[in-house]
């Protein structure tokens, strides 16, 4: 680090603006994808970036990030080609991770015919990666910590993004949710089943600059 103030700044209390909920995949590290220094983003990662309402880790991270750090944005970020999502679309149910992936498996089974009509396995996986992000943003929006922040007037925006490690780009899938009213007006994520995002649109690199 050439910046002589860097470690002085880092030794002070952190004050990140962003909470990142992302996949454990070793290639999708929040600071690198966002192009941000240490100190800028609080991070929670798990397999396939799923928000379970009984996940004590997620709940504690959300509470600390929102109530104490007062982050302004919560970003659920998935990635194309996710191995967890690929497994959820397969047949093997022999590992603990299959319990973890259950919401994705359920969504897949309900719409199996639509997924089967997509061109190949990669297309099915990538489409589910998108739908999963959209579903998890909605799930985060229903967690009481988030609702309570909105109820007391705290500014908090939820975002749904997906990262393409094949092109290094972030795509804003939405939904962006800033209130309970917006959340309640949204259609279910399932409404987009069978309609993958047009990869040529909505691209932004190091999307933080757009805030
Ligand atoms: Co993944």
What is the average per-residue confidence, as pLDDT, rounded to a whole number?
91
What is the subunit arrangement here?
single chain
Radius of gyration: 17 Å
Largest sheet: 6 strands, mixed
Total DSSP helices: 10
The helical percent reads 25-40%
Shape: globular
Strand order, largest beta sheet? 2-1-3-4-5-6
Which kinds of small molecule does this entry bind, naming each only once? cobalt (II) ion
Percentage of residues in strands? 15-25%
Through-space gap between termini: 26 Å
Order of SSEs = HEHEHEHHHHHHEEHE
Uncertain regions: pLDDT < 50 for 5+ in a row? none
Topology, number of strands: 6
- Structural class, by secondary structure, is alpha/beta
Characterize the structure shown.
This protein is an alpha/beta fold and 211 residues long. Helix content is 39%, strand content 16%. The protein has ten helices and six strands. The protein has a six-stranded mixed beta sheet with strand order 2-1-3-4-5-6. Strand 1, helix 2 and strand 2 form a beta-alpha-beta unit. The chain starts with 5 loop residues before the first helix and ends in a 7-residue tail after the last strand. The model has no long low-confidence stretch (mean pLDDT 91). The structure holds cobalt (II) ion. Cobalt (II) ion (CO) is lined by residues 23, 25, 48, 79, 82-84. The site of cobalt (II) ion (CO) has 7 residues, from helix 4.
